[in-house]
C-alpha cells in the first residue's frame, strides 16, 4: 500500500510501476514516490532497467503538426475506443495516435531509448466525435470494460538484441472510462528500450500493473 503524505505518496519501487499502488495514470518511481506517466518522468524516475537513464543525455522531443498525424513506426495507439486495448498492433478506427516523440542522442551507446506521448494542447474532439458516431459490437459482459469505453494505453517494452529476450507490458490497468477523460488521455505513453548487448540487470521481468 502507499502512504499519503500531503501531495505525495510513498510506494514500494520493487513493484516497478504498479497502478495498484499509485492509481491509474501514475507509476511508482525509483525514489519510492508516485509520479504521473510522461516520457520525461518515466525516463528519469523509473527503474533504469526499463530506460537506461543517463543524466548526461537528456530527452529531446518533437511533435506532429496536426493532432491526427501519426508516427509511421509506432504500432500502438494512445487511446482506443471499444472493448479492449491493443498492444503491439494498431486497432481499427477510431483511435487517438501519439503525436509527440522523445528520444536522446544515443547513437554511440549500446542502448536506445525512445518514448511517445501526447502533446500539450492536443485537440481530442475529432476523435471523441468519431467514437460517439461509431457502432461497435457489445462487449463481453464479464470483460473489462464490459461496455464500449475509452481505453487509455500505457505500454513499455524492452528488447535485448544480443539474447533475443525482452518483454512487452501494458501498465494501464483500470484506465477505461465511458465518458472521455482528457487527463487520462494526456497520461498515455509508449516507451521502448533496445539494448545491443545482453544485460545483466535485475529484475528481468516486466513491471506489474
Describe this structure in words.
The protein is α+β, with helices and mostly antiparallel strands and 209 residues long. 12% of the residues lie in helices and 28% in strands. It has 4 helices and 14 strands. The strands form 4 sheets. A 6-stranded mixed sheet has the order 5-8-9-14-11-12, with helices on one face. Strands 7-6-10-13 form a 4-stranded antiparallel sheet, with no helix packed on it. The longest helix is centred in the middle third of the chain and has 9 residues, at 125-133. The two termini are 14 Å apart.
**Spatial shape:** globular
Number of contiguous helices: 4
Low-confidence stretches: 1-7
Rg, please? Answer: 17 Å
Q: Write down how many β-strands occur, each being a DSSP E stretch of 2 or more residues.
A: 14
Indicate the proportion of strand residues.
25-35%
Structural class: alpha+beta
Largest sheet: 6 strands, mixed
What would a concise description of this structure say?
With 209 residues, the protein is α+β, with helices and mostly antiparallel strands.
Amino acid at each position: 500500500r502507499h502512504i499519503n503524505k500531503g501531495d505525495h505518496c510513498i510506494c514500494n519501487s520493487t513493484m516497478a510501476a504498479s497502478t495498484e499502488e499509485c492509481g491509474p495514470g501514475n507509476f511508482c518511481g525509483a525514489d519510492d514516490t508516485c509520479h504521473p506517466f510522461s516520457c520525461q518522468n518515466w525516463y528519469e524516475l523509473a527503474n533504469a532497467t526499463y530506460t537506461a537513464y543517463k543524466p548526461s543525455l537528456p530527452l529531446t522531443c518533437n511533435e506532429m503538426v496536426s493532432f491526427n498525424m501519426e508516427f509511421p513506426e509506432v504500432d500502438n495507439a494512445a487511446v482506443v475506443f471499444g472493448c479492449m486495448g491493443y498492444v503491439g498492433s494498431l486497432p481499427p478506427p477510431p483511435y487517438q495516435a501519439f503525436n509527440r516523440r522523445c528520444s536522446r542522442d544515443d547513437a554511440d551507446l549500446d542502448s536506445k531509448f525512445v518514448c511517445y506521448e501526447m502533446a500539450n494542447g492536443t485537440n481530442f474532439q475529432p476523435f471523441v466525435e468519431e467514437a460517439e458516431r461509431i457502432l461497435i459490437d457489445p462487449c463481453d459482459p464479464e470483460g473489462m470494460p464490459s461496455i464500449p469505453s475509452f481505453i487509455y494505453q500505457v505500454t513499455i517494452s524492452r528488447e535485448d538484441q544480443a539474447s533475443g529476450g525482452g518483454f512487452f507490458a501494458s501498465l494501464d490497468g483500470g484506465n477505461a472510462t465511458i465518458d472521455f477523460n482528457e487527463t487520462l488521455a494526456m497520461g498515455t505513453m509508449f516507451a521502448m528500450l533496445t539494448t545491443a548487448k545482453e544485460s545483466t540487470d535485475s529484475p528481468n521481468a516486466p513491471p506489474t500493473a
